[in-house]
Amino acid sequence: MALTDFIYNYSESIRITTATFCFFCAGVSIIRQHNITYHLQQRLLKNIGKVKVHKPAGYCAFIILSFIFSKKVFNNNFAQTIADMRDEANEADALNQSWQRRWIIIRGNISLTLSVVIYLKVQVIKKAWDAFSIGTLK
User: Which residues contact 98 (CB under 8 A, 6 or more apart)?
Assistant: First the structure.
C-alpha cells in the first residue's frame, strides 16, 4: 500500500510542478512577445522612411508572357523560371541585400528572354520540319 501511495503522491507532485512550470513559461513567453513586439514597433518607426514597397520579381514578364502564350505553354516553359526568380529575390530582400536582389532579377529576365527565344526557334523548326515532311511524302 505504501508503494501505491508514494506513486500517486509522486505523480500528483509532478503534475503540480509541470503545471507551475508551464504557467511560468507562458508568462515568460508573454513577456518576451511583448518585448519583441515593442522592439519591432520601435524599429519600424525608426525606418518608416526607408521602407520600400516594390512589385514582385518577374511581375511584368508574368503579365506579358501569360498574355502572349497559352496557359499550357506558359506553365510548362516559363512559370517555373518566374517562380524561382521570385523566391531568390524574396530571400535576398529578407536579408536586406538590395544589390543581390537586382542581379537576381537581371539574371532571371535574361534567362526568361533566352527561354522565349529558344522556344520560338524550336517552334519554327517544328513547323518547317512538318512542312518539309508533308511536302516530300506526297
Answer: 92
